[in-house]
Amino acid sequence: MSSPNHAPTSGFMRLRQEGRTEEVVRRMIEVIDLGLFAEGEQLPSESELALQFGVATVTLREALAVLRQRGLIATRRGRNGGSFVCAPIEVPQALLLERLERMSTMELRDLGDEQLAISGTAARLAARRSTAEHHARLLHHVEALGVANTRQQRRRADAHFHIEIAVAAQSVRLTNAEMRLQAEIGELLWIESGTAPDVAAIQQEHRSILDALVAGDANLAGALAEAHVTRGVKRLINLRLELLAAEGGSD
């Protein structure tokens, strides 16, 4: 049985094109940033990672070299050597606010529409296909959100919950899409502001979605997931408008 700390990674890392070092780097950054590989965790062997990505070993080695240069992994030689994930660096909130302000309302709505389609579909399928093991991992992520002490921990618990739903839907494409969306918008959803995310309310929303999955109620699970996404994106749009108003800007 897989550890409840993170979803299995091997099923959703394969790339569409081989020989693309930058694509391997991007996907690895997403996986590490989302905490699917934890701090200090040893990465699979080069041959295993290359197989999971569907690339040549030399391409994988080039990607790992880039990750080492960026300080995301460290490689140790010797009998107990290998590549290990370095401690994550939390993005300063000021940079996240700047990034949000640069996004247009249309861009945020477009991201929201995509996540609405992905999360809603994944939840409906998960209600039909998920197992007790999936439910246990989802419950772990629900509880992890409640005890998270930092913005990064909360963001990761939230992201893991949504990615695990896609895993429970037993769809590689939906899992890939959810991972990409979480990497793109996940940190913004946890910006602390005057309308800071209500952790208890979000945790309860997660719990309600999980209850619907356990009950096998596909329509309810999808509707709850979509409502959850809609609230998050609406908050981001309102926060961006507040930032623009404070600076006298316009959309």
From TrEMBL:
Transmembrane residue ranges: none
Domain HTH gntR-type: 18-88
Entry-linked CDD domains: WHTH_GntR
Keyword Membrane tagged: no
InterPro entries (UniProt xref): GntR_C, TF_FadR/GntR_C, Tscrpt_reg_HTH_GntR, WH-like_DNA-bd_sf, WH_DNA-bd_sf
UniProt keyword annotations, A-Z: DNA-binding, Transcription, Transcription regulation
PROSITE patterns tied to this protein: HTH_GNTR
Protein name per the record: FadR/GntR family transcriptional regulator
Species of provenance: Azotobacter bryophylli
